[in-house]
From TrEMBL:
Residues 50-274 form the ER-bound oxygenase mpaB/mpaB'/Rubber oxygenase catalytic domain. Signal peptide: none annotated. Transmembrane segments: none annotated. Pfam families: MPAB_Lcp_cat (PF09995). It comes from Mycolicibacterium poriferae. This is ER-bound oxygenase mpaB/mpaB'/Rubber oxygenase catalytic domain-containing protein. GO terms for molecular function: oxidoreductase activity.
Amino acid sequence: MVLAREVTAIRSGLGRAVFGMVAGPDGPDNRARIHGTPGPRWFAEDRPIRRVHADASMFVGGLRALLLQSLHPLAMAGVADHSDYRADPWGRLQRTSTFLAVTTFGPDADAQRAVNKVRGIHRRVRGVTPDGTAYEAGDPHLLEWVHIAEIDSFLLAHQLYGARPLDQASRDAYVADTARVATALGVLDPPRTEGELRERITAYRPELRGTPAARDAARFLLLTPPLPLPARAPYGVLAATAVAMLPAWARKPLWLPYFPPLETTAVRAAGRVLVGGIRWVMTAGQEEHAPGRRASTAR
């Protein structure tokens, strides 16, 4: 009995630490507002977007998305020139996490306000790349690349490491759900099926390449994130799992390794253990306060 209480206390403590890193100091208040405010939502409770975005696989999917997004030189230029990801990487993670939570689970009005805020930021993000190409974060074509790289990563991570992977119909429905948010952000014609998603990614490939800024960001994300010593080994597993989900064509420009036999055995097994562990600690508080409800990694 004493041991069980100790395990519960450790689990709860780890869950709070992980949640604090992802959601920030305002996380508990944001969670209460997002889930406790009455009113209509963009997505009903049975929609696949809620199932995917509530799963711990989002951790590995999010890191994979950042690596894939960096391959577009205009998207990477916007991050390098206007983002403080090196000085405040957890702040960026927390803002992204909150946006996903609000648009997926929050009331209509809050979701729209979150979108409006992002669009306002995008209007100020513009510049010129080192080769003289102008960019604007609000460019619908650039927004689409960021969107499809993100949802492709979330969907793949959920299929490999999610608690309840989706069937084909639900995967198509997930892509269609995310199109609702993409359209609100300014994407003109986002994909609405998994097949369309694959086609769009293929269509963007001629525009993608590794730049010094992209490789620098990959090194920072994978090798030198500001983490306390106890967190470095688990994060190493998370990083290896994210890299293993990238296709070969996406790794070469970033100078990332490619070892298929090892990745489909040892790395995937380690990834399942890690994501399962994150899921276990993240659901501790939710089980204590609201039995039966699933916890969201973005909440």
